[in-house]
Amino acid sequence: MSPKAPIDLPVIDFSKLGLNPGSNIEDQWDSVKSQVLKAAEEYGCFKVMSTKISSELKNGIMSNLEELFALPLETKMNNTSEIPNAGYIGKTPFTPLFESIGIVDPVNLAKVESLANALWPEGNPSFSKNIQCYSEQVLEIEKIIRRMVVEGLGLEKYLDEHLNSSDSCIRVIKYECPKTTEAEIGLAAHTDHGMIAILYQNQVDGLEVETKTGEWIDVKLEPDQFIVIIGESFLAWTNGRIYAPNHRVTMAGKDVRYSVGTFTAFKAGYIVKAPVELVDEEHPLLYKPFDFLEVLKRHQEEAQKSSEKPEKAFAPLKAYYGA
Questions:
Q1: Nearest one of 162, 144, 158, 175 to 52, comparing CA atoms
Q2: Is 129 left (phi over 0), alpha (psi -120 to 50) or beta?
Q3: What is the per-residue pLDDT for 304?
Q4: Average pLDDT over residues 47-66
Q5: Most buried among 161, 226, 281, 319, by the most CB within 10 A?
Q6: How far, in Å, are 42, 106, 181, 189, 223 from residue 207 at the CA level?
Q7: Can you say whether the dihedral through the CA atoms of 255, 315, 89, 91 is positive or negative?
Q8: CB 102, CB 171: distance < 8 Å
């Protein structure tokens, strides 16, 4: 196993920022933008500090997750989706500690309520309201990050198209504690195929991120912190100007880990390709144009064949669409 790095990820404060740069103090916006681009280039991830999302809401989400995962397996399996990997995912031989539930378009209260009605006979207003409210606030941070990356790369003319090219979902996750005193892999090392993930957790650590030099960083989050992880689709769109890190979850101790991930990806049918300004002799094209939905379908097909080859279940996007 690769050594753990004695370093920490950058912490960037978003507490005073709004989505529209004009509503912010110019120097503050530019300062945070510089930090975001540097972290995205160097680590492909960073910690976000935000006091805008209340402790009451975050604690409510975690309470909802405990209630949700305590439901019977047959009930949780009512969470289905036509989008690959967007419904309920149960434990497998490769991920025996892991299970998760996806919620597509979580800012749409009606869609969240529809899921709640499928899981609880009389719905669950607290769950629905908390998920919808949390999603709205986290996705504002996500849009600020994308705007800053696009601006930082000098690609303002693509900004509106870029911001309108995505869909989002939430995936809530439970990691059981190991059955022995030995640490166990909760989720194997992988890059995200999507654009950006923003993760919040209960105060049980376990997430690890790999640096460009092959060292692993233990990610420890304070109660007001989230972690942002760049996905391979965003790396592809920037033609490698930013980084998409390998990451994994290692479980140890006797505490269950809950996390909630807000994932943004390119819309089905949108062809992802690097802007021409980012392709030249020094930076040759890294990825062929692709439709993200086709990526998910190919990934699901490979994962279903991977009963004896777990590495296929976590193959990077580049394995399918590298130039």
A1: 144
A2: alpha
A3: 66
A4: 94
A5: 226
A6: 18, 24, 18, 10, 15
A7: negative
A8: yes
